[in-house]
Amino acid sequence: MMEIDSVRVESSLWIGNKRYRAFLSGWYFSWTEIDKRNREKKTISVPVSEVIGVKEGQVEIQPQKKVEDTDLDFTLFYVKRGSKGNGIGAPRSLGRTQFCCPSRDVRDQWITQLRTALKTHSPSRPHRLLVFINPFGGKKRGKQIFHSLVAPLFELAGISSHVVVTERANQARDYILKKDLTGFDGVICVGGDGMFSELLHGVIGRTQQEAGISEHDPTAMLRPCDLHIGIIPAGSTDCVCFTTVGINDPVTSTLHIIIGDSQPLDVCSVHYQSTLVHYSVSMVGYGFYGDVLAESERHRWMGPLRYDYSGCMVYLCNRSYPGLVQYIPADSHISSPRDNTRCLSGCRVCSESKERLFPHFDSSSSLYSTTVSQYSSELEGEWVTVEGRFKCISLTCISSSCPRSPKGLSPSAHLADGTADLILVRETNPLGFLTYLHRHTNTQDQFDLPFVEVHRVKAVRFSLPPGEEEEEYEEGDREIQTSAERVLEDPEKLSGGNTAGHSQQRFSARKERGNVTTSRVKRRGFVCGPCCAKPRSISVWNCDGELLPHTEISCRVHGQLVRLFARGIEDSAVP
């Protein structure tokens, strides 16, 4: 017998030869084992919001699809939480439970009630997605990952997808900027951080175009984006996915997309004078991080090993660079990069920041119907100036954690509080700098060193100290400057994202234009090697894996500018 009222649905069901009492009440579907003496034993409870689908009969999806239509059975698919895996977050998998009902009527009623509850409690789930696959990134397994792991789950959840396999750099960005996106609930990248950067630039650019806002105006208040971005990790590092989910696992990310999880994310715009150069989420780095990327481009034939090799070579060169850094500090009473907290799912700081970033937001309407005039001013405050010689300068909107560095560049950084963390590493001896780098891989505080300082900021400007510009400029540097001016004539060349696998074509073109020259990043160190050349006073900027053609830049944080299909890292203590 099945009991149905406006609040609760209940009946006896069987799993195998065991009887259960099943309940659908409020936001949860639960089933409790009943022993032969009618005593209750173990209860399993699944949030309706995490139900993937309900199918008639006996249905299997993995390892291959198998359907046996029976009159009394239905199969429930849901998000199953696993124990902590290879990350700082727990993986998710597809849970499957097959129920047998006392009659077909009871089965049909259960299926109807569960599907109705699913629509009621999960109104924000996507129905149609635009998917971009980078077949070249990482281990070149993008297509395999999508077709074997992602597509079957989308089909199970009733999600249709239009798939584009990219063939060139910035194809995904251009598609989003120019094609009709009507009917799509989100865009998905199957690739690495470079592919995500393409989608980021496309979605932000499209939104500002439609709003009539110039991205090239450094003072413009950018409109938050409606279209969600999803990341299926298939790259080499997948830093953004790791930081926002806690693990690089395609199934976990797919399940977050299916159930419509939504995580706002801060974005940093990078300008050269009055021209947009790039958008950044994970890192804008000068000095060591820029030199490593520039050096690695000379060794692309080595594959991913080139980053370790280049890092070692650049470290041995022991470079430091003069610079003038200016920043607007964030409110230190709200949060601090040294407060030893972690930005987890449901973060209080990020939640309260919505009211500060969108003071006229009406909770009964969409966040993204908010007009630009209602967007709060982010540049209140006085500029603070720091001058000196630096081993590296880093700006990150997120912790930038990854499997090799679980804490990341700034462990206490927040995903959506409208700020970024500025890390200044002053000139020091090689052993001291090695200690700083090593602490990214362990539990020690990388900021607890006398030559390191960190600030939570809203905006940053970088320039060369007076006299440095001309002091050591030589033919190679002049070539770089001239090429940068040529690129400025075509702003389109400056606003593209980086795509792993596609970047070889782009860097080859850049070398032809003179944007990246090996002579620029060579300096004599204390050992002989590929970097033993005349010392240079200028490094290059590494912006999310893309070399920038300018030295003097300005950066500004745009709070909660985009939204991802994610929910942040969930506390491992929560079951």
UniProtKB/TrEMBL annotation:
GO terms for cellular component: membrane. Residues 124-274 form the DAGKc domain. Residues 496-507 have a biased composition (Polar residues). Gene3D superfamilies: 2.60.200.40, Probable inorganic polyphosphate/atp-NAD kinase, domain 1 (3.40.50.10330). GO terms for biological process: ceramide metabolic process. InterPro entries: ATP-NAD_kinase_N, CERK_C, CERK_PH, Diacylglycerol_kinase_cat_dom, Lipid_Phosphate_FormReg, NAD/diacylglycerol_kinase_sf. Keywords: Kinase, Transferase. Residues 488-516 are annotated as: Disordered. The keyword Kinase applies. The keyword Transferase applies. GO terms for molecular function: ceramide kinase activity. This is Ceramide kinase isoform X1. The gene is LOC113070521.
